[in-house]
Amino acid sequence: MTLDVIATTAAQAVIDAGRFVLRPVRKSDAGLFALYAGDRRVAEATRSIPHPLPPGAAEGFVARAIKRPADEDIWVMDGSQSALPEVLGVISLKRMDVAKYNRDQSEVGYWVAPAFWNLGIASAAVQALVDANPQANRTMFAEVFQDNPGSARVLTNAGFQYLGDAETFSVARGAQVPTWTYIRKLG
């Protein structure tokens, strides 16, 4: 797969991921975010999405995603140029320790709408983000819930190495959930 950064919008690159692009969030994405993130399966696979999704949550997410400057860059997995839906999912890079240590490291987060699970969408998105390295990171981290081995495979397929076990709170589950943490060193 050839990776090309297509353009830059508001200091955030549009990244070619093969069958789709990773592009900055638009206000018009809110409706599909509400539909997909409102699905219990999506919410319970994340730390921060509540279920049920409260009114205005998708619009709040969009407002946060487009605000600049930001400590997190958020992209939509957009398949509209390949006869796929405009929103397949979301992927983000959240800068870590910038103010205190400036270690050039970020945490990867992503979710894919259930209709597009098991189609390689998440794998292509994570690999494209690693290859593009739009924040010029030296290190990327990611964590997945231990009851989601598919997301763990997405990370290992993109060259992430298992770092250890932990746990984190899931808003949708209302509980601490065991996680696996991964690291990817970049050149």
Automatic annotation (TrEMBL):
<dbReference type="GO" id="GO:0016747">
    <property type="term" value="F:acyltransferase activity, transferring groups other than amino-acyl groups"/>
</dbReference>
<keyword id="KW-0808">Transferase</keyword>
<feature type="domain" description="N-acetyltransferase">
    <location>
        <begin position="33"/>
        <end position="187"/>
    </location>
</feature>
<dbReference type="Pfam" id="PF13302">
    <property type="entry name" value="Acetyltransf_3"/>
</dbReference>
<dbReference type="InterPro" id="IPR016181">
    <property type="entry name" value="Acyl_CoA_acyltransferase"/>
</dbReference>
<dbReference type="InterPro" id="IPR000182">
    <property type="entry name" value="GNAT_dom"/>
</dbReference>
<protein>
    <submittedName>
        <fullName>GNAT family N-acetyltransferase</fullName>
    </submittedName>
</protein>
<dbReference type="InterPro" id="IPR051531">
    <property type="entry name" value="N-acetyltransferase"/>
</dbReference>
